[in-house]
Fold this sequence. Notes:
The structure holds 2 protein chains of 2 kinds. Chain A is mostly helical. In chain A, 83% of the residues lie in helices and 0% in strands. Chain A has 2 domains: 1-44, no CATH class; 60-161, no CATH class. In chain A, helix 3 (62-68) crosses helix 5. The longest helix of chain A is centred in the first third of the chain and has 34 residues, at 25-58. Chain A is elongated and about 65 Å long. The two termini of chain A are 26 Å apart. The model of chain A has no long low-confidence stretch (mean pLDDT 82). By secondary structure, chain B is mainly alpha-helical. In chain B, 81% of the residues lie in helices and 0% in strands. Chain B is globular. The chains are: A mainly alpha, B mainly alpha.
Amino acid sequence: MIFFVDGLLWVIALALGVIAASRSRALALASIREGVSDCIKLLPRIFLGVVGSGYIAAILPAEVVGRWLGADSGFIGLCIAVIGGVITPGGPVIGFSIGAAALKGGAGTPQVIAYTIAWALFAVQRLFIWEIPVMPPRLVWLRVMASLPLPFLVAAAAMLFGRP
Amino acid sequence: MSSEAPLKRRPRKAFDWSSAALAVAVFVSAAVVYRRDGQARFLEIFFSDVELFIDILPKVLAACLIAAFVAVLMPRDVVLRWVGAESGFLGIVIATLAGVICPGGPITIFPIAAAFVSIGADTGAAIAFITSWTLLGYARVLVWELPFFGGEFVVWRIIISIPLPIVAGFLARALMVYINRRRKAE
């Protein structure tokens, strides 16, 4: 599956490159140069984010998290879930693995959904490592503010519709 | 909202204070792991994360190239018409659908969103795009979420999440109107 996603990304990049080159060779070369230089500038951050997040995750106590997010922890549990999602390091695996562990450890489904959504939307480390360097800061803060209610909305919907 | 000037792409710095803060957190955590769990565990985490890093590299490069090409190729009038400040509800829905079908990870989505904003896409549409990619994007669900949570949980979470990008897009637009009004009042 991962190869398919990678492949599709490169197919899009190549197709755009061919279109650019067919318009003007110089335009295509300038774009490639810019893309490569952006990528090189991002590397130290991504290295730090990916290699470092494993250590941060390793010192987070998973069982304690499960207890805090118990099914009857109510609104406070939700708030803890959201804050927990915010401080969980970014990267593709950590939030899901902690969420899954918490679910097994007796956490409520709405709380775990709120946790994974908060983590996906605004894990602080990802915000600083990837988002702020790459996008205009104003766009980032607007996005964070506009997304703040979302984990709560989801948890409310989850409680309304009951457990799957 | 139409007074919104298109945002310029910022030059990127390789390292700054936010990276430095993270570096401190990483070094402290790594030291704790080393002392508490020993060298074997320390190296195990290191090698598995380096593997992940190498896995991510080609995706980052592809995304940066896509962003650079989009910035020069995408006709501005098309972007303005479909996802510009005047695009209304339809613009947010289009951005949401684009987020669902766009491949790649978070590092790939942010440069692409920034490229679209720099050529005239509306901030609300860009935020709907990012939110939709984050919550509904198939790549992340299939590769990462499904193995951890299983089908039932994931399907249920996605159904609940469907309206969220649209909510975030409209909230962002409302916030922009509010901020602009306050700025004018001052």
